Amino acid sequence: MNRLRLRKLRQTGAFSLLWFTGAFSVLIMLFVVGYVIMKGFAHLTPDFFTTPPRGGLSGEGGISSTIIATIYLVICTLIVATPLGIGAGVFLVEYADHLKSRIIKNFVALARFGVETLAGVPSIIFGLFGYALFVTAMHFGFSILSAALAGSCLVIPVIIRTTEEALKAVPDSYRQASLAMGASRWETIRKVVLPSAVTGISTGLILSAGRIVSETAIFYVTLGGSYRTPTSIMSSGRTMALHVYYLAMETRAFDKAMATGAVLVVLIIIINLVINVISRRLSAKTGS
Amino acid sequence: MMTEARMRTVDYNLYYGSFRALRDVTINIPVNRITAIIGPSGCGKSSLLRSFNRMNELIPIVRTTGEVFLDGENIFNKDVVELRKKVGMVFQRPNPFPKSVYDNVAYGPRIHGIRDRTRLAEIVESSLKSAALWDEVKDDLGKSGLALSGGQQQRLCIARALAIEPEVVLMDEPASALDPVATLKIEELMEKLKQKYTIVIVTHNMQQAARVSDFTAFMLTDEQRSGNMIEFGQTTDIFTNPVDSRTEDYISGRFG
Fold this sequence. Notes:
A: mainly alpha; MetI-like fold; 11 helices; B: Rossmann fold; four-stranded antiparallel beta sheet; about 25% strand
C-alpha cells in the first residue's frame, strides 16, 4: 500500500516537472516575441514600410528597400536551390536505392552523409565559402547573385530532406500500379509520384524561404550591406534581418531595430502557419 | 482438353538473394480462360504471378533462371514496357492514383502515346463499361478515384488495367480486401472478361477458385521452403478428383 503511494507520488513529481519545463519554454517564446512586437509596434507606421532607410547614426527612414531586397533574395535563392534540391531528393529516393553497382551505392551513401552534415553546418561557414568563391574568386562581388548562390548551399539540404520525406510518404502501390502498366520509372515519377508529393515538397520550399528571411551571418559576408533598393542581380543589398543587425550595432536607433524585428517575427509566424496548414492538409490526404 | 497456352513457364526458378522461392515451375496458362493459383501463405503464388509481367525485377536482389513465354516469345528478350502493355495487373489492395476517375483510366493509354481526346474518351468509356463501373461513375468522371468505395476502386483499377488493351490480366487476390458483395461483383466481372482476356488469379479463397476458375494450379513449399507446382489441371478435376494426395489434403482443409 505504501509502495503504491510512493509510485503515485513519483509520477506526480515527474509530471509536475514536465509541466514546468513545458510551460517555461512556451513562456520564453511568448516573452521574446511579445517584447519585440510591443517595443517595435509603436514605430510601425505606413511610412515605415514605404520609405527606404536613410543611413547615418540615427537610423532615419523606413525599411522599404530591405523588404524588396529580402523578396528579391528569396526568389533568386529558390530559383537556384529548388531544381537542385528536388532533383537530388528524387534521385536519392527513386533511383539510388534501385542501383546495383557497388561503387555508385558507396557514392550515394557518401552523398547522403554529405546532406546530413551540410544541414548542421553553421550558416557563417556557407557565408565564408560564398565570400571566397562567389564574391572574390568569381568576381560577383557583394551582390544578390553571390548571396543567392551561398544561400542556396544553405537551403539545398533542407529541400533535399523535405523532398525525400515527401517522396517516401507516397504509397509504393502507386509506383507499382504505374510500372505494371508499362510506364517507365521516369514517367512514374513525373506523372504519379511528384504530383502526389507536391504538398510535402512545397513545405520544404516555404521552410527554405523562412530560412533565407531569418539568416544574417551568411548574407553579411556575401550580400554586403547597401541600404539602397537593389536594381539588378549584381546589386548589393540588405535584407530585413541584416537591417536589424545594422540598426542595432551601428546606429542609435534601437527602437527601429525592434520595429523591423517585429515585422520579421510576424513574417516568420505567417510562414510557419502556412507550413502548418499545408502539412495538415497533407496528413489529412494520406490518412484517408 | 487443354486449350492453347497464352503464357507458359519452363523450369522457372526465382531467388530472393540466396533463398530459392520457386523451384522448377512449369505451367501453361490457357488462352481466354481463368487460371487460379492456390496454395498456403508463402508458397510463392504471388512471386509466380509477378513473374508473368516481370514485376519481381523491381526488387534488386531477385534473380531468375528458366524461361517464361508469352505467345511463344521469351519475355526476358522483350522490352519490359512492351511486355507490361500486353500483361496487365490488378493488385491485392485497390490502388487508384490520387487523380480523377477519368485520368486514372486514361493514364495507361496516355503513357503509350494516345493524345487524341475523342479516342481517349472512347477508351475510358469502354474500359469502365468492361469493368462494370460505367453506370456508377458516368455522371462525374472528374471525381477523385480515392472517393469511390473499396469495391468501386478495385473495379476502377481493373478498368485502368484494361485501358491498355492487354492480352493477359494478372490478379493478385483482387477481392481479399473487399466485402462479400463487392467480391461477388468482381467474380461476375471476371466471368465476362475471360471472353476477351486470359486471366490469372492468385487467391487464398478456395471457394473463390472453385467458383470462378477454369483451371487451377496448386502450389506448396518443400523442405527448403521453396515453392513447387504440385498439380495443375481443370478446376473441376482438382477439386473433385485430385491426383496428388497433398492437393486433396489442402482442398479438404487438412492444412494451410
